[in-house]
């Protein structure tokens, strides 16, 4: 077993940041977990097949689920793709660095293992000062799936990374909780109109403002175009039950039923209406800001899971802004394992 080292940086201090060890580890085929504005990623040299293989093994990730390559800039993206279509350029110019992943044609230099055998490659420039610095120093692409065991909620703090991958990776760069808390939005720009394969930190409206028409890929097509969606995601061990916003009657019914069945309940609510109903001590009361909910959702799901609850009751949010991504992830936690 490896000893996983943690490198802590305080983003509020303008202290000197020495990333030479992290760069060295990556150059030698090691694994470094890194923060982004969305969630923590599990980093390896995108051009090193053995290193990338380790990423799949350690996560327990199916080999047909491709990885995102992180780069420092639009220019650097050209190392991995022969061309960026007009729509892709417009989006990249506005939203990079940021929570947007573009699916593009891939160059031959990209190892098959990275793109899971597809003829495309997913690329993004993360909006995080330390990780951008790391990418600049590394001077190439770093693969970065979320740094969790496959099927668990993505890590939003370094402690989650250690929980899942401690002893299996070389280093974790810890800069505290991630700003957004949900993964990037994945857009396939190889087709016209472009298609959203995964809704995330950027919502549909923002994308439309820049390129006009854009579609949300439907289920059947998604399974073909975005292999990741074939697998159960974001899922804690407990059963997750969604209730609509402010639905006191449904909430009380569920609590009663769970108690009758002697099930341990955890819950995550945000509206004032449900605030004072205590199903159990394991009640996360969020404030109603969507940004706050997005930022804290995965952490709450993990903590409830650790407490060994049988059922997690979660209050829905409105499907607007980041609420689109929150509801997407919540629905995925309730889907049965295929
Ligand atoms: O915010 C994020 O995107 C985080 C941070 C660390 O950057 N990364 C992340 O990676 O969420 P991962 O591997 O957990 O999710 C990548 C998603 C998967 O759904 C995968 O199927 C899809 O992107 N994907 C990757 N390459 C693709 C490709 N060539 N075509 C279609 N979908 C692709
Ligand atoms: Mg993931």
Question: How would you characterize the overall build of this protein?
Answer:
With 338 residues, this protein is α/β, with parallel strands linked by helices. Helix content is 33%, strand content 18%. The protein is built from twelve helices and 15 strands. The strands form two sheets. Strands 1-8-2-3-7-4-6-5-9-10-11 form an eleven-stranded mixed sheet, sandwiched between helices. It has a four-stranded parallel sheet with strand order 12-15-13-14, with helices on both faces. The radius of gyration is 20 Å and the shape is globular. The model has no long low-confidence stretch (mean pLDDT 93). The chain binds threonylcarbamoyladenylate and magnesium ion. Magnesium ion binds at residues 145-146, 154.
Can I get a quick summary?
The protein is an alpha/beta fold and 338 residues long.
Defining traits:
338 residues, alpha/beta, 11-stranded mixed sheet, 4-stranded parallel sheet, 15 strands, 18% strand, binds threonylcarbamoyladenylate, binds magnesium ion
Distance between the termini: 32 Å
Structural class: alpha/beta
Radius of gyration: 20 Å
Quaternary structure state of the chains depicted: single chain
The count of β-strands is: 15
What are the segments in which pLDDT stays under 50 over at least 5 consecutive residues? none
Shape field: globular
């Amino acid at each position: 077993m490896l000893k996983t080292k943690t490198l802590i940086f305080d983003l509020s201090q303008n202290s000197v940041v020495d990333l030479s060890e992290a760069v060295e580890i990556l150059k030698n085929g090691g694994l470094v977990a890194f923060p982004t504005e969305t969630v923590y990623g599990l980093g390896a040299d995108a051009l090193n097949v053995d290193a990338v293989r380790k990423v799949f093994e350690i996560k327990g990730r199916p080999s047909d689920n491709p990885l995102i390559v992180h780069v420092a800039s639009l220019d650097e993206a050209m190392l991995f793709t022969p061309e960026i279509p007009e729509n892709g350029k417009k989006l990249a110019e506005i939203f990079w660095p940021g929570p947007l992943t573009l699916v593009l044609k891939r160059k031959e230099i990209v190892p098959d293992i990275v793109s899971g055998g597809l003829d495309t490659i997913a690329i993004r420039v993360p909006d995080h000062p330390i990780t951008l610095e790391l990418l600049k120093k590394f001077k190439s692409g770093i693969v970065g799936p979320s740094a969790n065991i496959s099927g668990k909620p993505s890590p939003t703090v370094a402690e989650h990374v250690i929980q899942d991958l401690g002893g299996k990776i070389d280093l974790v760069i810890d800069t505290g909780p991630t700003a957004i808390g949900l993964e990037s939005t994945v857009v396939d720009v190889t087709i016209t109109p472009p298609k959203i394969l995964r809704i995330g930190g950027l919502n549909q409206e923002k994308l439309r403002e820049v390129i006009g028409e854009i579609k949300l890929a439907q289920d059947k097509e998604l399974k073909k175009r975005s292999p990741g969606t074939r697998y159960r995601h974001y899922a804690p061990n407990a059963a997750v039950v969604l209730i609509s916003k402010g639905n006191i009657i449904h909430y009380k019914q569920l609590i009663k039923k769970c108690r009758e069945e002697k099930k341990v309940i955890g819950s995550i609510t945000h509206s004032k209406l449900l605030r004072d109903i205590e199903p159990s001590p394991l009640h996360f009361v969020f404030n109603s800001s969507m940004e706050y909910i997005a930022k804290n959702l995965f952490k709450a799901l993990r903590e409830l899971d650790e407490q060994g609850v049988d059922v997690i009751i979660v209050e829905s949010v409105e499907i607007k802004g980041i609420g689109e991504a929150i509801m997407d992830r919540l629905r995925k936690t309730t889907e049965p394992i295929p």
